[in-house]
């Protein structure tokens, strides 16, 4: 009679063996390589913005490694003298900061209400909010543009801010509600026994514990609004254009104005890039935690 050796390990799948081999230094090397390749366009744009138009038309940006004398800040000086670009940077900040803050504040309040407050139709209202995540921005451009025109805010910064807030709230409520729902009920009940009302409970307990999710939401909203071009192109006029539309206008009107386009494009890219790298840990932690429940 044949006996089976109980010490024999079960045969692992091919995927498991490949994952074990990649879990060491090879995986880290691949990730570093991918990250370096991802940064190449940004580095190239930086060096291009520090060269003269004549040097850019004569050779590629990598020539600065053999001829570092090509590097100059003259293009950035011309950028500061270009009122269209400088005003567009201010407009971008005036759009991005309020749109991000409003989404965080309103999304946090709604997320707390959906997670811990009882009211009629709570689950159905939350399903409706989640359903709004699948509504494409392009579908709402025409009706919202008509609505903003009727109430007199079309072409203004307020209209752009409200559009971004409206389309940012569904994801904000979904993310924060799931994160807040993971807070232990005993902790909230203990705070209520100590006499804390809903507002105090929200500000003193829920908001500090929801820091990672709120930070990730703020980063996500900031990046989306700062890099947006479609909404800004439709809902802003000439005086209220953000940097993305201003750069596109410079290309269309002054195609050879590369000494301004290079620095402007780099500044437009480096600000959200710096924000993401500064808070990338909170971004990943908050998104993963909010997606678990």
Layout: helices, strands, pairs:
Blueprint: H1 14-22, H2 25-49, H3 53-58, H4 74-81, H5 83-116, H6 122-131, H7 137-151, H8 157-180, H9 185-193, H10 198-209, H11 211-226, H12 230-235, H13 243-253, H14 258-278, H15 280-290
Helix pairs in contact: 2-14, 4-14, 5-8, 5-11, 5-13, 6-8, 8-11, 8-15, 9-10, 11-14, 11-15, 13-14
Report on this structure.
28% of the residues are buried. The protein has 293 residues and is mainly alpha-helical. It has 15 helices and no strands. Helices cover 74% and strands 0% of the residues.
Characteristics:
293 residues, single chain, mainly alpha
Please provide the ordered H/E string of secondary-structure elements: HHHHHHHHHHHHHHH
Beta-strand percentage? Answer: under 5%
The general outline is globular
- Class per helix and strand makeup: mainly alpha
The major β-sheet equals:
none
> Into which percent range does the helicity of residues fall?
over 70%
**How far is the N terminus from the C terminus?**
51 Å
The tally of strands reads 0
Number of helices: 15
Contiguous low-pLDDT stretches (5 residues minimum) are none
**pLDDT averaged over residues:** 80
How much is the radius of gyration in Å?
A: 25 Å
